[in-house]
Amino acid sequence: MTMALYLGIDGGGTKTKVCVIDQNRQIIYEGKGGPSSTDTVPPDVTYKSIKNALAGFKPPTPEKPVFQAVFAGLGGVLTEADFKQVEIILRKIPLIGKTTRIRVRNDMEIALASGEAFDEGIVLICGTGMVAYGRDTQGNTYKSGGWGYHEGDAGSAYDLGVQALRTAVRSLDGRIMDDDFTRAVKHKTHLRYTSDIVPVVARYHADRTLTAALAPLVTEHADQGNAYAMNIIDKATSELALAVKAVHDHLVLNKRRVVIVGALGNAGGLFGTLLKKKIMAIDSLFKIQGPVIDPAYAAAILAMQS
Fold first, then answer.
1. Which of 143, 147, 140, 189 is nearest to 164 (CA)?
2. pLDDT (tens digit, 9 = 90+) per residue, 196-233?
3. Which domains does the chain carry?
């Protein structure tokens, strides 16, 4: 008898992870590949990354395996057209057959499931970018934020970096007083003279990863009591709480669970303290938690449930 196999895919802008499970939710295989987020790489790279992640998979039975179902949570997919494009890519993967059920969704869905919130709950993703997303038992979903760094991604590491750079520029041209925080940002970004401002700001605004790398300077100086950094943190956590509230207000939740995903969202110190405090102010019955299971494994379970 052929073993039933289910494939979960967690595809991001830097790496892809796959997880294969059997009907008992036992992990049969895990593998990693390159980036597959559709807003980061072209379709051929998405295909190659997923295929490479599965390259080490050895079938547990002599027969050629055909996955019963696949759930792919990828960054960058937002519309039905996006979902269909990725499904076409997945159909080309050798181990995926014509009868395999395929479901493609944005990676915020597997982020929610990583908190074992398969039926209902809210997820707040806060890393380089941000988004709040939720689902209730009636099948309603809602998303707030996550419209891309050009919109601002308020509360994200990118946003913290933008605000840090802006503060450093203002100190460089004399609008505000210089201090340890502004000097640290200027040193990191090579801002020495006012003639550096335009090229440095242009370079950082064009590279969200580079800008997001300034976020640790903000959180570190906020923990040390720096007024500029604390102000940035206060505004950022308020923006994140607003996104959570927007999702909360559009759903009917029985289990008031908020799963926080991402390095910045799960940071300790002042940022984490303020964020949790502001989320709890929305609904005192909220249970705040981090991920419980790996997103790729969560995707595989969603494949089984599809």
1. 189
2. 999 999 999 999 889 999 999 999 999 999 999 999 99
3. 5-114+293-305 (3.30.420.40), 119-290 (3.30.420.40)
For residue 132, the one-letter residue type is A
* Residue with token string 């992640």: 53
DSSP state letters, 111-136: HHHTTT-SSSEEEEEESSSEEEEEE-
Give the tens place of pLDDT for each residue, 26-84: 999 999 999 998 887 899 999 999 999 999 998 776 566 689 999 999 988 889 999 99
Which of 292, 181, 290 lies closest to 227, judged by CA?
A: 181
| Cβ count near 31 (within 10 Å) | 17
Note if the pTM is more than 0.90. no
Cβ atoms within 10 Å, residue 43: 13
Residue with tokens 């009868």: 99
